[in-house]
Amino acid sequence: MKRGSGLIYSLLLLTAAFIWGMAFVSQSKGMDYMGPLTFNGVRSLIGAFVLALYLLLTGRVTGEKRRSTDWKMTFRGGLCCGLALTAASTLQQFGIQYTTVGKAGFITTLYIIFVPIAGIFFRRRVSGIVWAGAVMAAAGMYLLCMTESLSLGRGDLLVFFCAVVFTAHILLVDFFSPRVDCVAVSCIQFAVCGILCTGGALFWEQPSWGQLWDGAGTLAYAGVLSCGVAYTLQIVGQKGVNPTVAALLLSLESVFATVSAWLAYKIGFLKTDQTMTGRQILGCVLVFGAVILVQLPAGLFPKAGKKAGKQL
Question: Which of 44, 151, 162, 198 falls between 20 and 30 A from 87, CA-CA?
Fold first, then answer.
């Protein structure tokens, strides 16, 4: 792969992380109007609808592209990714009810470490530079998100399993993305997630049209941009990026969320004090440093680059 192409794929993943980070205020506000399953279900269905409309308008399901697409593999990929996404988002949302947001944020980002570890079991070795970046990013996430001592309770365990499932989702995307139509897979995965979460909401949360109307703005942003656009960028971006590097880039979501919340407070959009401490700023620096480290040309690290040629 050419260096320029790899940079483009990295920028797609970075854009996805930016959209997810900027969605922080919207998603938090959405919880004021409806339950977590209702919010996740409806925004996923919106994302699936937007992507289905795009597929129809571009002729991917009616023209020449349809005949060249392996639809059996595409449906399989969408189903697997959708089940993983549903499980991860549900575990995270319920886990947050029993733990602090700081702990949940740090524990969730453990996928930064889990991805290269899981890759070993699939005979996918990772260079020492990428390992160093993963550890550096995890340390940055700790400083950014943790404000209390770490202890594992019921909520912590739920979020821990959420991080494990997000690891599976990243690896599934890495496996299917080179073999399928990425937009179609993204559409299917959101349809699966939307149906399952909405079914759970109807059973446990009793949503109403009034709730959906009141939270229409937050649902629109989360559905169209966070789901429809960002997750598709993730699938397309992972076509040309090692999954461990992808996890590092996507972990910038927490950094963008923290910075955007602070800026929103400073300009008056948020009333709650979002000022970052020196500890949090250091965490941001470490995460950005980790991402830059793994993106540097292999030639700058002769020994590591020589090994990485076979590993990545």
Answer: 151
